[in-house]
Specification:
Blueprint lengths: L30 H6 L6 E5 L4 E7 L4 E6 L4 E6 L2 E6 L5 E6 L5 E5 L4 E5 L5 E5 L1 E2 L2 E2 L6 E3 L5 E4 L23 E5 L4 E6 L5 E6 L5 E6 L6 E7 L5 E9 L8 E3 L5 E4 L3 E5 L5 E6 L4 E7 L5 E6 L2 E6 L9
Length: 316
Amino acid sequence: MNIDTITPEDDPRNPSYNYKNIIMDHVENTDLFNSYIKSNSLKQDFKGTIWGEGPCYIPHKKMLIWSDIPNNRMLKLIDGNVSEFLNPSNFSNGNTLDNNSNLISCSHGGRCVHKIDDDLNIVTLVSEYSGKKLNSPNDVCVKSDNTIWFTDPPYGILSDYEGYPGKQEYGGNYVFKYDPDNNNLEIVTKELNRPNGITFSSNEKKLYVSDTGEGIKHLYVFDIDEKNNIYNKKLVYDFKPYFSDGFRSDIDGNIWTSAGKAIKCFNKDNELIGQILVPELVSNLEFGGVEGNILYITATSSLYSLELNQIGAKYK
């Protein structure tokens, strides 16, 4: 099958394939959520990805980058113009910034988490656990103490669509914490089936992780103690038949997440407060722009943006 001759939603390998004819349920937006929406006009900034993922805004460059996994490239948006950021990208997926504004990227192809500086120099940070290859790091977030937390499901090694076919070596799908200051890798949790998206709350006292295993389409939240242990797992929402793939916290601790052909928003009490409909299956999102009030949305073939009266957590 030639992925260049068919639309993404017509390809059975694409995550959007099973959702192309589904219509989203109505959600009654709360007054609070409506107050966050500055413009009801969803702007399409780009069309042409096969499965867009991992948006990350880089403030000192006034640039948004994101991954186009099956096309094995990363794109960038600057002043309304889109061009390639990195090609090939070794099938990059999730992206974030470390505390020195380096890009931290999950590489399906390299089965690793690596760092990319402003000159596009790439340094592998971690690729093994106990001498065995990681699966295919998927999504990543960085804490204020410099630790890098990432999920490691097998999606990038199941076929050649989002990486290279391979075997799971350490025998699980874990959430990890890597400390670049001492090169130490630790397991955060083993209890999720296929951990996917990951982010911290705005105060870093909670960790949000989605599970997209077979028959499990959940978003969970954990408390984090002073030693970076997580506990008190709670279900935020069951997204079936859709899934929560990527998400971010805003400055007030609300979680904005992909949710089928929509963005859903939950408050700190795990209550659904609103929804934004999107024309395509959504993978991920990011707060960006000079003021941190532009919501960038990666959907199957497109990048969208929406102006808000709210800002992302990293802009506090």
